[in-house]
């Protein structure tokens, strides 16, 4: 598909000096026209969250307007579907020069998750020149406000291109197993993540291993059972307590020969806040 | 009217002071994935897990380096890279101030890893660090000395050569002993 070429008069009126001049003039009063180019509405919800009194962007003059002819800034969201191609161009041409175009969200900046879909042009910058990119899926209201204040020059850009080219010495990445077999740790982490997802699973894994080490004799199922039961009783969060018991019954018993009575009966242990 | 004033007096000023004061995000906020180059082994698990292909792991043009590249503009902050990373090289941070002006390349993070050449066909096939990491894992996993020596050899062989060697071994008619 042949994409849009910016007419020479618009391009001339929108060069960098003109834009910086505009930014100097609009100072603390700017009108934003929001155009939805096939977004999933996540970004819209965050824009409206950002203009609530909780964030109150009118402190620095942010105002949404209903007509591109009144706008200084075009806030574009979405990966630009084929249906929104011409409406986007009409809005762009209708906005008085010089104008600032902001691409909001992952879809607006690069096409996001739809970048290679057949029905989208993936990204506002494929069609019209974009000045500010605000990534996020959707961006946090604070990110939106940060992006707009960056555009105005109130705040500085934090992100810079980072490129590592020389490898340093590789640190030792595999920890020594408490059991003498790293497969135990591997299975434990996999099961912990399956039970409680990756964020809490890692915490569960740490808590369980701590309790196991505290028992003193890791290969003795009697000692570890007492230690884990104590840890479960001391745990405030019932999710961690129950999952520690499940981990012990499912993983530990595979690696250490256990009798039936060495399993923890989950319904007999009292846990949770006292 | 007076009631309204009472209510606003009760709740006070709830507007965040954000651009003028730092804003603290909620606990477990999923911000920009932070990349620690020293821990990265180039296993490409994050590249495979990434649903929007914001992370790509591929050889550069002359195949002298394995390039890990992250485009923050395409990232949807799902945290799957964090979930699969075996060494903790990529972790979601609380960074939310991600906007960039004019130049999109500021959104990119990249790391170049040294490549491992196959000991048989001399073609690059993986990152040196991944081979080192795999060997380290094996050496701590209760494997016998003899198996470790074997592992040292076959870790440096690319999948294609390994496949051919296996086929040649199977069809040679020799008797195999599995210990």
Which features would summarize this protein structure in a list?
A: 274 residues, alpha/beta, Rossmann fold, 2 domains, B: 179 residues, alpha+beta, Alpha-Beta Plaits, four-stranded antiparallel sheet, two-stranded antiparallel sheet
What does this structure look like?
The complex is a heterodimer of chains A (274) and B (179). With 274 residues, chain A is of the alpha/beta class. Chain A has 2 domains: 8-152, Rossmann fold (3-Layer(aba) Sandwich); 182-268. Helices cover 43% and strands 10% of the residues of chain A. Chain A has a 5-stranded parallel sheet, sandwiched between helices. In chain A, helix 4 (85-94) links the parallel strand 3 and strand 4 (100-104). In chain A, helix 3 (42-50) packs across helix 6 (141-152) and helix 7 (182-214) crosses helix 9. The model of chain A has no long low-confidence stretch (mean pLDDT 86). With 179 residues, chain B is α+β, with helices and mostly antiparallel strands. Chain B has a single domain (23-171), classed as Alpha-Beta Plaits, CATH 3.30.70. Helix content of chain B is 31%, strand content 19%. Chain B is built from 6 helices and 7 strands. Chain B has helices at 2-11, 45-49, 80-84, 128-139, 145-155, 159-171; strands spanning 33-35, 55-59, 65-71, 90-92, 100-101, 108-117, 124-127. In chain B, the strands form 2 sheets. A 4-stranded antiparallel sheet of chain B has the order 2-3-6-7. Chain B has a two-stranded antiparallel sheet with strand order 1-4. In chain B, a hairpin with a 6-residue loop joins strand 6 (108-117) and strand 7 (124-127). In chain B, helix 4 (128-139) packs antiparallel against helix 5. Chain B is elongated, with a radius of gyration of 25 Å. The model of chain B has no long low-confidence stretch (mean pLDDT 87). Chains A and B meet through helix 5, strand 5, helix 6, strand 6 and helix 7 of A and strand 5, strand 6 and helix 4 of B.
